[in-house]
Amino acid sequence: MQAAILSIGDELVLGQTVDTNSAYLSAQLASRGIMTLLHQTVADDMQAMVDMIQYASERVELIIISGGLGPTDDDLTRQALAGAMGVELVMDNEQLPLIEAIFTRRGKPMPDRNKIQAYHPVGTTMITNTCGTAPGIIAKLNKATIYVTPGVPSEMKTMWDLSILPQIIKLAPSKRFIHTLKVNTFGRGESTIAEELGELFDRTRNPKVGTTVSKGIVSVRIRSEFETDAKAKTQLNQTVDAVKAKLGAIAYSTEDITIQEVLVQMLIDRKLTVATAESCTGGLIAKFLTDIPGSSSVVKGGWVTYANEMKVRELGVPQQMLMDHGAVSQPVALHMAKSAQEQANSDLAVSVTGIAGPGGGSDEKPVGTVWMGIADRKGATCRKFVFNGTRETIRDRTAKMACQMLRMRLLGEDDAAMTIG
Fold first, then answer.
1. pTM, whole model, 2 decimals?
2. Average confidence (pLDDT) over 63-76
3. Could you tell me the domains of the chain?
């Protein structure tokens, strides 16, 4: 069985409200072995809604529509469904008293405009809303069974759990089991990762492997679908292991946690400490680390030496070094890292000095150039990166890379694995 999810509302189309209902419903359907073929956000426009309902009803067996069941003039889902079906609206005499009772409990009379919420297309049935005044609707059109829910997430989820999911289980008893997982990575681009995964990326294989990118994090998505739960889990785990083997240490987690969370936990487990020396990131690395609960036991402190005079005064960077090489240079980054480690008496330290933009770049040192130093009690190393994007993006990627470089140092891995920048 394949499904379509339609989310209704101008506020969604305009980006004023984030559509969380579609993600929830897709996950719920996937857990039952139902593939969502179509996600569509539709404005509060009658003809657009009619067209989309008719389009979806000819292509999938199940449609879930959320939103547009309120009492105002722009709540048009019930009318659009009637239009798509070619029928009129009729009142449900059982639902009207239930809606009136909600207002009675609030000590208020029901406004006349709320009566529309008890109307539904001829030939359909209504679903009682135990949390609000907008009942849902069940309809059939072409090849599809259609369920309409309120757009309010809490009302939608309650209606889904109590009324819709039990019907879908009867409608489409699960014959296949689906398990999903993602491997989060940082340090290589999406296209590079796709090449390295090779045959694992073949769209005809099961489990399926794909990638998504968000703020520099490339997540490798794995979806395993088999006739038994045990086989789905086994195949998923085997593919996860294969992905990790191909990508190596840039893969930092299979959970929804950040690089900095992984790093802080590694430091805690190893009873090690860290210090920071920052220029272009302005304290963002320290913020990333200290945002994590428990970081006080591993983060010694840090320096924000934005101006050259602060690099000289606080970290002892020689004035002549700045004159000879400039602030954004390997010698300066190395000195900053070693000085921070020594002054803080920490096990590790990281330094960054760079050009976040939008101005300040040159042919030799373009915007996005960052020198990053990592020091421990044995010595220090340094690496140059050139990040792309806005000032905010460059600072964010620099801070994430600092956390990943520290993590790689703890793992004893070669930082040459980092190819972005």
1. 0.78
2. 96
3. 2-171 (3.40.980.10), 177-253 (3.30.70.2860), 259-417 (3.90.950.20)
